[in-house]
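Following up on my earlier message about phosphoenolpyruvate. Here are the inputs again, as you asked, copied directly from the submission form:
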Amino acid sequence: MIIKLDKNIKKEAKNLILQKLQDVGYKSNIVTTKYDNYIIGVGSKQFDIRSIGSLEGIKDIHRVTAAAKLVSKKWKTQDTIIDLGDSVKIGGGNFQIMAGPCSIESEDQIEKTVQHLLENNIKIMRGGVYKPRSSPYAFRGLGIEGLKLFYKHCHANGIKIITEVMMTSQIESMYEYIDIFQVGARNSQNFNLLDALGKQDKPIMLKRGLSGTLDELLASAEYIFSNGNEDIMLCERGIRTYENSYRNTFDINSIPVLKKKSHLPVIIDASHGVGIREFVEPISLAGIIAGGDAVITEVHEIPQIAFSDGAQTLSHLEANKYYQNVRNTVAFREKLIQF
Ligand code: PEP
Ligand code: MN
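Thanks, got it. Here's what our run produced:
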């Protein structure tokens, strides 16, 4: 059960609601975000919710039985819009392209990428400075010094930053340099990290786990929301299956299903989703038709010399055409498809 409270509810009124919930055997969780105050009631007993809904200080009340409640569309029917400032928004009809290398490698690489994004009117740059790598001997990122360089050039050019946070202890030092915290597939169920990100006031892009179900993804998003952060995006980045013709199986089904289950924006990561450069574009376009709210795509001036994920990375030249086709597909969807 989700109870949305009046902003200036009196303490006594709030206590009365908590008492009523306790009387019917419900456990209460208080959630405070920068937008609203909620009480999440968890219990199984059936009772007439009007007996609580009529109490003073309640804006609205909804029975949501799913495990992931706050992220559910059953309660909030309008799409969540992530507002990054400077008119850069994601969700609710606002489509964005996020692009950049898998890893931040050097100042020169950052400058070239920023130039490339400016030429293509792209407002959000991706790039990892903490890299989860299967091998401990692979390049693991430039760390906080790399992030500072990343910030220097993006900030000077009005470009927003999305980058992966791997550990709770990195959050504080990263905070001032980033616009979106990315949670990688391997950390999709790192509940301590999700708790900590729920206490931040910057948006989170949460990736689906390597073999995570959609309900697990939503439950992970619920950790973030229930800790106080409503600004969450879900990312389909492919899952492990028995098929080994490509790196991962991009689960196109997940996009309409997540959009039906949740009000959160859904992001298409075809780069990791298929893992092969020449298929990144068709899979991205399919994701757009399926209803995705943004793409996040790996690009590099010369993918062949990229420090990581070169095989799935578009060259800047290839990306120019890709962005055009992404935009054409979004325009086609807006004009010709009724959702
Ligand atoms: C990445 O975005 O470069 C990355 C490591 O992604 P994932 O967590 O999806 O593997
Ligand atoms: Mn990558």
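One observation from looking it over: The chain has two domains: 2-62, 82-338. Hope that helps, and feel free to reply on this thread.
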